Amino acid sequence: EIVLTQSPTTIAASPGEKVTITCRASSSVSYMYWYQQRSGASPKLWIYDTSKLTSGVPIRFSGSGSGASYSLTINTMETEDAATYYCQQWTSTPWTFGGGTKLELK
Amino acid sequence: EVQLVESGGGLVQPGRSLKLSCAASGFTYSNYIMSWVRQAPRKGLEWVACITTGGGNTYYRDSVKGRFTISRDDAKNTLYLQIDSLKSEDTATYYCTKGYFDFWGPGTMVTVSS
Q1: In the prediction, which pLDDT does A90 show?
Q2: A22: helix, coil or strand?
Q3: Do A45 and B61 touch (CB under 8 A)?
Q4: To the nearest 10°, the Cα dihedral for B104, B25, B18, B63?
Q5: Integer Cα distance of A69 and A54 in angstroms
Q6: Alpha helices in chain A (DSSP H)
Q7: How many Cα atoms occupy the beta-carbon half-sphere of B74 within 13 Å?
Q8: Which tens digits make up the pLDDT trace of A49-96?
Q9: Does B9 touch chain A (CB under 8 A)?
Q10: Which of residues 35-94 of B touch A (CB under 8 A)?
Q11: B7 alpha-carbon distance from chain centroid
């Protein structure tokens, strides 16, 4: 099973601040996927194929990485970005998620 | 508009069974793999099971093999998850997902407790 480890577990950012969340896989994966889950809501696919933004996702978001190391970056934090973000891999079953990074507004 | 609506959750005693349903609309359901993903209270996401188009193949995480059965009815645009021998660790919100998790339903809560 590929284990995905996200860091940090929790982060607080002020509006306008740059935020980076990392996801490390226990073995190399082909692509990384990211989901946003706001409080009380179901997750939404946010970034797919490592760096492609789902329709409607603001361009302040970006994804990058390769092999076993990936990241999600918010160029300038906005209020609406406060949520929990999960990384996920499709490379091998069981398809696994990271433990999540809770992004709070400072 | 894509819609997935789960139902069938509730409070169930350990050892009992439950069948979850997911009604799909707004897309050509038969063309997509479908999955169930669960989330225990205040915990992360965990993929549970997947079924390919036509129901030809099913995949499960090890911890649920033999107890969970995923199925689909393409005539009714409905996905199912039969859960047998329920355990307390099955307590979670169960989400129905379309394709490669590109759309999620609102979820249905399953609580296993005596």
Answers
A1: 96
A2: strand
A3: no
A4: -40
A5: 21
A6: none
A7: 13
A8: 999 999 999 999 999 999 999 999 999 999 999 999 999 999 999 999
A9: no
A10: 44-47, 50, 59, 61-62
A11: 10
